[in-house]
Amino acid sequence: MNILVVGIGYVGLANAIVFSKSYNVLLADISKEKIKSINDNLSPIQDDLINSFFKKNPNKLKAIDINSLKSCEEFDYVIIAVSTNYKEEINFFDTSNIEKVLENLISKKLRATVIIKSTIPIGYTEKLKKQFQYKNIIFSPEFLREGYALYDSLNPSRIIIGDKSSLGKEIGELFYKNIDSKDVKVFYMDSKEAESVKLFSNTYLAMRVSFFNEVDSYARVYNLNVADIIKGVCADPRIGNYYNNPSFGYGGYCLPKDTKQLLASFKEVPNCLISSIVESNIIRKQFIAKLIVKNNVKIIGIYRLIMKHKSDNFRSSVIFDIMQFIKEYDKNINFIIYEPLINERKFENIRIENNLNRFLSSVDLVVANRLEENLLGVKNKVFSSDLFLTDC
Prior knowledge:
By secondary structure, this protein is α/β, with parallel strands linked by helices. The chain contains 13 helices and 16 strands. The chain is globular, with a radius of gyration of 22 Å.
């Protein structure tokens, strides 16, 4: 069996590795750097299990430029895992990358079943089938954490298949056969329901993040011990001791765009909670920025741009919004960034200092969305809301 995976990101690469255990898998992208990395037997993303895979399985995976693909006749399945960024000007996901890929593949005699792994708006799969007059398109959402993409693909919380027909069952069995954990439920549903599961799941997580961030805001205003409050609240098994570590706000690639897309889908539906989740995140970031400015310092050190430990991605990181709000409140404040992933001397015209000791001695205050062990010795100089040294 031959599988083509389009999109060499967390989702595409993790799925390619999972299926390469049993089938012939080819990766495709337009990024020359990512293609070269795969063909050089190196992971283009930071993920310990993926790095380990490449060390143990040299030359197992190959990648090509999708535009160099001459024919699609040999593929039984095509997995599309390209980016769908949220566009503020249209108040909707930009799905053009999916459409370009599908148009390209159909022009090359596509006969395979297409599995969409990109996050999409509710109703998009049916729209896509009609637009391209291609019925074998199925949406199956992913639920992966950056830095743990392969682990989560091999040990999923659930498998969602947006099709109840025999074709859907075939796709469900395809995924189930290649995962490690067998105590996993497969849910079959129509495509709109599957699309809804993805957006509502991420919006719920954003709601939980926002809740504990507002607990932290309350405790800061009234000078309360927020760790004691959260531990006491989360001892209730109905609430649970997880996803409760305060942050500067939810950010990263998924939660901000997925919550906004779901809110856009609620346009004709009465709601308060969904809109509040989006608004709460803005209020939290503004509140944090004002607290930082109150320290009355001239040089602020930004410790890491990444959102999570073991990640190499800072797309839509919450720290960018914090910096923007700080500048709005005090234009005289300057920044220095500590980010080992950036080799240049400047990032967006802000100085980069990757020697930690020089960084710490060069700034008046260190701002860290997430703490690490190397900051614990200078906590009196650090502003953070991180209580438990966890990502969530």
